[in-house]
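Extended Data, record Nucleoside triphosphate pyrophosphohydrolase
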Amino acid sequence: MPNPAHAAALDNSQPPIQQLCAIMAALRAPDGCPWDHEQTHESLRAGLIEEAYEVVEAINQKDDANLCEELGDLLLQPIFHAQIATEEGRFTFDDVARSIVEKLLRRHPHVFGEDRCADSSEVLKKWDDIKRVEKGDKATSALDGVSGGLPALMRAEKVQKKAARVGFDWSEAAPVVAKIREELAEVEAEVAQGATAKIEEEIGDLLFSVVNLARKLKVDGETALQSATDKFSMRFRKVEALARERGIAMDKLSLAELDTLWDEVKRG
């Protein structure tokens, strides 16, 4: 027989967000799920990142049904963290929701106040200005607020955007292309010299410049790289399938022979 204390978790008549919070509380209860009860903020970190990436994958696939499901999985993460914090007397889910409500109202005076913004660039500038005031003007750099925990590609793009807002940016893409050529030449020079100590640094500079070009051309670097990886993976699997059909062991082929299979797949 269900525990009467878990009645709210079983009550489908209440708003779904409230029922979700009640379910999480029941799972974390002493007589709830042992796995859920053992989790901490730290143990949930990897799952939070994974769920976010699964949402991105659903968006890329334009799969609404899967996107709805993945957003639900992602929504569970803040509910989970808030429940842990509630048990520890630190904050509640209502505090989390109230905090973001207040922030959105405060940082959109052009919507909920008298201010006006001509375009999205002005909105972003105003957002940064309000953010600096909120933090007591303690910002020492235009780059403050970019998390060091972001994936490298995303962090590079955010840093570049922040620098661009204070004018540190080329006005067009052509100089960025020239910079990529310059950085590639530096990589080639280090490789030719066998100077392995600097190769990593020079490749980093090259990658940073490529991210900059994507940003200037309004291409999302993360999406572009994911698409390129997907394309490579699809073609490579077809090469493997072709080799199996012909009874060929791929690890016995030369690179030239593998390239022949690759070109055949591309043409197909």
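Summary. The chain is about 70% helix and 0% strand.
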